[in-house]
């Protein structure tokens, strides 16, 4: 059975130890301990070793880019404190203390190579740092925000307003009718790449209603939200979404696409879906196992085996 706790980027999270976030003295001591674990990002990209895995630093990381924003992620199973540093976008690896140790790599590429805990930590750090970068100013008075509570909150220096990281709920769904399922593609995707449809949840609606509404808006397929089958959810740091996956029994089959959202959509049989997932389809391919779309498609394609 598919479980959200086993989903890539969500699997094997560390103890967030939220009670430590306001203890400045403890945090300052912890990040300088010999057992401290520190990962680094630059513009949302994690620093990875030459073998492609996440590069974990110790307290020496503080000398690489002094003054870079810090984030306390929590504690691992041994109790070691886990931190992340957000390096400047113009940070040059070649002229730094870490020249030759690795590289900053696109998050999608890097996360596919990481162990579960590493991927979860890097994903969490990416979401939080990108949120801070886009929320430098107070939405209440326009004053400068400062990073507080070890990175888990922003506070305005002028009016004191508190701002908390946002998570955007997104419905991602596979409409099915009999032995066929609906997949679609956006025009900027690689040729042959197709996936589940998805869209943001709006104020005043449930996530099941959002799934059904988006299916109708993008592909013209009528679905009853009361019949939606929940599959699993996945944190998705692009920049900070929570993808909630559904299988939607369809009440209609004529496709009428919204060309602003999709380039095309089509029904595929269960056998075709298996070929797509296995990489043996002659024309189409789908998201990799790091994405929840892959798992939604797989649940439906192989559920009768």
TrEMBL record:
Domain Nudix hydrolase residues, every copy: 165-292
Pfam families named among the record's database cross-references: NUDIX (PF00293), NUDIX-like (PF09296), Zn_ribbon_NUD (PF09297)
Any GO CC annotation of this UniProt entry: cytosol
InterPro entries for this protein: NAD-cap_RNA_hydrolase_NudC, NADH_PPase-like_N, NudC-like_C, NUDIX_hydrolase-like_dom_sf, NUDIX_hydrolase_CS, NUDIX_hydrolase_dom, Znr_NADH_PPase
Keyword annotations: Hydrolase, Magnesium, Metal-binding, NAD
Catalytic activity: a 5'-end NAD(+)-phospho-ribonucleoside in mRNA + H2O = a 5'-end phospho-adenosine-phospho-ribonucleoside in mRNA + beta-nicotinamide D-ribonucleotide + 2 H(+)
E.C. designation(s): 3.6.1.22
Record family assignment: Belongs to the Nudix hydrolase family. NudC subfamily.
Name of the protein: NAD(+) diphosphatase
């Amino acid at each position: 059975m598919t479980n959200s706790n086993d989903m890539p980027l969500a699997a094997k999270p560390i103890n967030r130890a939220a009670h430590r976030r306001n203890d400045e003295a403890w945090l300052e001591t912890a990040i300088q301990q010999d057992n401290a674990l520190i990962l680094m990002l630059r513009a949302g990209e994690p620093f990875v070793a030459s073998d492609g895995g996440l590069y974990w630093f110790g307290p020496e990381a503080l000398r690489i880019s002094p003054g870079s924003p810090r984030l306390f992620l929590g504690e691992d199973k041994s109790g070691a404190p886990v931190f992340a540093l957000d390096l400047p976008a113009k940070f040059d690896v070649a002229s730094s203390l870490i020249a030759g140790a690795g590289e900053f790599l696109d998050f999608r590429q890097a996360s596919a190579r990481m162990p579960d805990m590493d991927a979860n930590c890097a994903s969490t750090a990416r979401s939080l740092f990108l949120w801070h970068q886009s929320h430098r100013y107070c939405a209440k008075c326009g004053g400068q925000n400062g990073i507080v509570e070890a990175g888990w909150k922003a506070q305005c220096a002028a009016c004191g307003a508190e701002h908390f990281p946002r998570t955007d709920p997104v419905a991602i769904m596979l409409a099915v009718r009999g032995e066929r399922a609906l997949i679609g593609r956006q025009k900027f995707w690689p040729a042959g790449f197709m996936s589940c449809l998805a869209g943001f949840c709006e104020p005043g609606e449930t996530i099941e209603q959002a799934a059904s509404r988006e299916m109708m808006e993008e592909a013209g397929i009528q679905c009853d939200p009361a019949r939606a089958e929940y599959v699993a959810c996945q944190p998705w740091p692009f920049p900070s979404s929570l993808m909630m996956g559904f299988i939607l029994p369809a009440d209609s089959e004529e496709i009428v696409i919204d060309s602003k959202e999709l380039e095309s959509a089509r029904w595929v049989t269960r056998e075709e879906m298996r070929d797509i997932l296995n990489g043996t389809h002659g024309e189409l391919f789908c998201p990799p196992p790091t994405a929840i779309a892959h798992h939604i498609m797989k649940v439906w394609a192989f559920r009768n085996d």
